[in-house]
């Protein structure tokens, strides 16, 4: 049996952790089968405990843009560890990484490091409320901003539904201040802001979505958001936890030329270590304690190991050619669409730079509703078939896949071959029609 050890570790894990995992999507609930337990990674590959190799397109959900166990990054972590793992006092490396972030994001004059993307967005919301002295926020259906209470809310159907929590354990009172709108629908935003701006502190979004699968902002969506929020003195928060340093040495705000008021970062800036950051122009950031009255703190914030790993990652990244990565990904996606066509399977790939999602559908996917309308059963079958053949894709359609600078033309060729075979196999099967199993937290 190919996954013998994984299976036995999984069985034990099930008795000790909910669903055997420390974050929900790892349990493979949306795609079925048994999660593989990973032993190690190197470059574009991961190896499970049974020594099966996989070309990895999850890359720890985005952070590993240099690939696994990059030599210089590992060495930077090692050197930092030898000097001590945490001090709870300032270190020089924190200033160095802050300087890189501030230079790469013109809308950010000051930045605070935290320990996760969740913390970054949670703090950004508190900051926006403190600065504007208003309480309500607007978010978009299908955008994920971490698992803090106020953001675990999605809309039911209808244009503008005030908060219904999408997790139990979130009081209605928390969700009540969160207004949820459909992504890419600027008219919904305009009317909500126009009628409610006196209470609305901020609009928060993924400027490019990764968490309903990859969904791109439509032409002018971001710039229209910018002008509407500016006009009504509502802050615009870009959650660039995935997109920060993913498409260029900066964020989506550089790609689309739309500055945010507050920017949230995570994932790549930690290079695979736990980190997050939020930043803004000085007048906003100075609301944070101890200068201002917005309290936010962290025992391990700016942790030396996380900062050493993130700093080295960014220093290496600064010298690399993002265009190369984008071309590699474009080639992969074009080939995936081609093998789908030749297997007579309806599919569309949404891609920007080095992130992409394969949707089994005939229609354009531009928001959460259209993402939910895709054939999730077929995605599940596809996922299992390519996993079996050594390609590790996101274990749910509602996720982004990533490329790293460690991926090669050979990796892509192999992936396309594996996918071609898998698609022919599942093309013969009818879809399982599992229904919607959306997710809100990984
Ligand atoms: C991953 C993610 C988060 C949460 O970050 P964690 O480090 O998992 O807490 C927030 N926003 C976006 C857009 C993300 O992709």
> How many domain regions?
2
Overall pLDDT confidence: 94
Q: If strands are numbered along the chain, what order do they take across the biggest sheet? A: 4-13-12-11-10-5-9-7
Q: Architecture of the largest domain, according to CATH?
A: 3-Layer(aba) Sandwich
Question: Can you count the helices?
Answer: 14
Strand proportion: 15-25%
CATH homologous superfamily annotation of the largest domain:
Type I PLP-dependent aspartate aminotransferase-like (Major domain)
CATH topology of the largest domain: Aspartate Aminotransferase, domain 2
Number of strands: 17
Main beta-sheet annotation: 8 strands, mixed
Q: Any idea of the CATH class of the largest domain?
A: Alpha Beta
Poorly predicted runs of 5 or more residues:
155-160, 432-442
What is the topology?
Blueprint: H1 4-16, E1 38-42, E2 45-48, E3 53-56, H2 71-82, H3 92-104, E4 110-114, H4 117-132, E5 136-140, E6 153-154, E7 161-162, E8 164-165, H5 172-175, E9 178-181, H6 186-196, E10 200-205, H7 221-231, E11 235-239, H8 252-255, E12 262-266, E13 276-280, H9 282-285, H10 304-317, H11 322-342, E14 348-352, E15 355-359, H12 368-372, H13 376-388, E16 391-392, E17 401-402, H14 409-428
Parallel strand pairs: 3-16, 5-9, 5-10, 10-11, 11-12
Antiparallel strand pairs: 1-2, 2-3, 4-13, 6-8, 7-9, 12-13, 14-15, 15-17
Helix pairs in contact: 2-10, 3-10, 6-7, 11-14, 13-14
Bound molecules: pyridoxal-5'-phosphate (PLP).
